[in-house]
Amino acid sequence: MSTEAVSAPPALARTRALLDPALRRAVARLDPVNRSISEYHLGWVTADGTPREPAGGKAVRPTVTLLAAEACGAAAETAIPGAVSVELVHNFSLIHDDVMDGDTERRHQPTVWALWGVPAAILTGDALVNLAQEVLLPRDPQASAVLGSAIREMIRGQTEDLAFERRDWVELPECRAMAAGKTGALLSASARIGGLLGGGSAAAVDALGAYGAHVGMAFQLVDDVLGIWGDTSVTGKPVLSDLRARKKSLPVTYVLSAGGSPAQAIADWLAAPEPADGAPETELERIADVLDAAGGRDWALAEADREIGQAVQALDSVPLAEPAREELKALTRFLTHRSA
Amino acid sequence: MSTEAVSAPPALARTRALLDPALRRAVARLDPVNRSISEYHLGWVTADGTPREPAGGKAVRPTVTLLAAEACGAAAETAIPGAVSVELVHNFSLIHDDVMDGDTERRHQPTVWALWGVPAAILTGDALVNLAQEVLLPRDPQASAVLGSAIREMIRGQTEDLAFERRDWVELPECRAMAAGKTGALLSASARIGGLLGGGSAAAVDALGAYGAHVGMAFQLVDDVLGIWGDTSVTGKPVLSDLRARKKSLPVTYVLSAGGSPAQAIADWLAAPEPADGAPETELERIADVLDAAGGRDWALAEADREIGQAVQALDSVPLAEPAREELKALTRFLTHRSA
């Protein structure tokens, strides 16, 4: 995997234009409090409710949904309720995860709980995940069931991630299963729901679901690399942040599972009591070097390439319409070339 | 409204026998962590996972669902997925509300967040509300939409309730609207979902929904009376607990809205800064007396009677099957005669 940056595919801008009005209409169905907190979280207004230059996320999941519908020969418009619902679920998980992880900033802004407290963040997250189903259900109950099972998997993934924090050792297959739930499930559902709303065949919907699952795993592998070796200006996170949090990420569990003296060094570090004022920077740099020398970084990037290959293979395994199929492929390159 | 206790209607025991196996099967679909926390919360196991003599709630909402299906001429069994889903939503709200309210005990046991922390409580609540829709959706998407709109109303109600805590004055209509969301919406949906699954006519389903909404409001009125004047041995809450929390409950907002010197006395009390070590018992007793003398208690109990009358009227406004209709009426008497 190369390190050059890949510019944002045109599909992302096209999606935003289709998604935004529908997403705003959906959020407007909430009570005034949860509506305005959601609008802040989505980057549409400042904390006091003043409209601002929108500064939300990349809307990757809704883009996957709309392209998947097009890949099944439908107009992107047919899948808008699906696109809205996956974006709502994604933001539900961000708001609740920020509480659980104690994160006070997201996209350089204070998080919802940091501004309005934990109860408000719990309620706004609850409101968004319920709204997602209220938007999708009348459009297609089958798609709604796919979303429900993805939400269950996301919750399982986040639950395992929190449990791993309290453990000194995590096996690689466990870590993969966690990432498949936490990141893969919603990306897979995003593609599958687009296929369903686009009237795709069962084979096309399954292939799209496989595409999303592989893209999700590739995305997580790259994210884990950036969490250890990433540049703060790119990631927006403090340098070495995942090591500081002792996260049993995929590169870490790979090195642990490979055994030998690097595994022992990492295991000793994880088992040692943490200094009250946090680990010194030099110690974290030493651990990053051990992981790198043991092949943790190269393995993760090679695995991400392999997952992308499988995602592309899934798309090529069934008849799908162009240019949507090519745009779905371009999206994978964008997602996994974030200066990794 | 009299003060004699009314024994539990036989319908509650009959419901438990139908509900429990299906509820246990549903909860078993969750990942192991959220499953065992749910089983603890539902009173099936101790904190270490040991099975115990079940000690859950009264399962009022599922009983309403099953009786509503019978009232539409169906077997109670047809509505089991609905009964399971409303019980799951109820328990989602309890687990999240306990976090928001900082309550450390429920049914004389430590609450989920008190035992496993806030992140675990957030995740288990999320898992239960999603599971509710996963159970109901394949059975009846229309019922699932009714449940989604009830969840939205519950979240609105809880959001308003929290906002009221930070205000010195709440109008009675605002307080009613809050209670309609927080308590009325799910009871109304429970009855409506039972009617839908039981194949009831649109008129029957609407009448059942009205019944549930009125029962919910009556229940909340009685609950608010018990929160001020209730006996700890009956309520399981500390005496004067709602006054201690400065809750703008229905009796309090009634007295505020009625004006005059009692309203002024209550307003002064709410506006005064709270002593750091909490209000002295004598002060709270004085406030309870002011509320009582101003008719707060009598008004609330008369309103509860009026709501019950409307609930019964709704049941009598359409053709419904016996004995289910009578059992639905008996349930209202049980719910509102908890030594109020």
The most extensive interface between chains reads:
A-B, 37 and 37 residues
Number of domains of chain A: 1
Mean pLDDT score of chain A:
92
What's the order of the H and E elements of chain A?
Answer: HHHHEEHHHHHHHHHHHH
Q: What CATH architecture of chain A do you see? A: Orthogonal Bundle
Distance between the termini of chain A: 8 Å
Gyration radius of chain A, rounded: 20 Å
Proportion of helical residues of chain A: over 70%
> What is the subunit arrangement here?
homodimer
Pfam families (chains A, B): polyprenyl_synt
Family (chains A, B): Belongs to the FPP/GGPP synthase family.
GO molecular function (chains A, B): metal ion binding; prenyltransferase activity
Protein name (chains A, B): Polyprenyl synthetase family protein
Kindly list the characteristics that best describe this protein:
homodimer, 340 residues, mainly alpha, Farnesyl Diphosphate Synthase, two-stranded antiparallel sheet, globular, Isoprenoid_synthase_dom_sf (chains A, B), transferase (chains A, B), metal ion binding (chains A, B)
Description:
Chain A is mainly alpha-helical and 340 residues long. Chain A has one domain (10-336): Orthogonal Bundle (Farnesyl Diphosphate Synthase). Chain A contains 16 helices and two strands. Chain A has helices at residues 10-27, 32-41, 60-71, 80-101, 112-116, 118-136, 141-165, 172-197, 202-229, 232-235, 241-244, 250-258, 260-271, 281-293, 296-316, 324-336; strands spanning 105-106, 109-110. In chain A, strands 1-2 form a two-stranded antiparallel ribbon. In chain A, strand 1 and strand 2 (109-110) form a beta hairpin. In chain A, helix 3 runs antiparallel to helix 4 (80-101), helix 4 (80-101) packs antiparallel against helix 6 (118-136) and helix 4 (80-101) packs antiparallel against helix 8 (172-197). Chain A is globular. The termini of chain A are close together. In chain A, 54% of the residues are buried. Chain A binds chain B through residues 29-31, 33-34, 96, 99-100, 118-120, 122-123, 125-127, 129-131, 133-134, 137-138, 141, 144-145, 148-149, 151-152, 155-156, 158-160, 162-163, and chain B through 29-31, 33-34, 96, 99-100, 118-120, 122-123, 125-127, 129-131, 133-134, 137-138, 141, 144-145, 148-149, 151-152, 155-156, 158-160, 162-163.
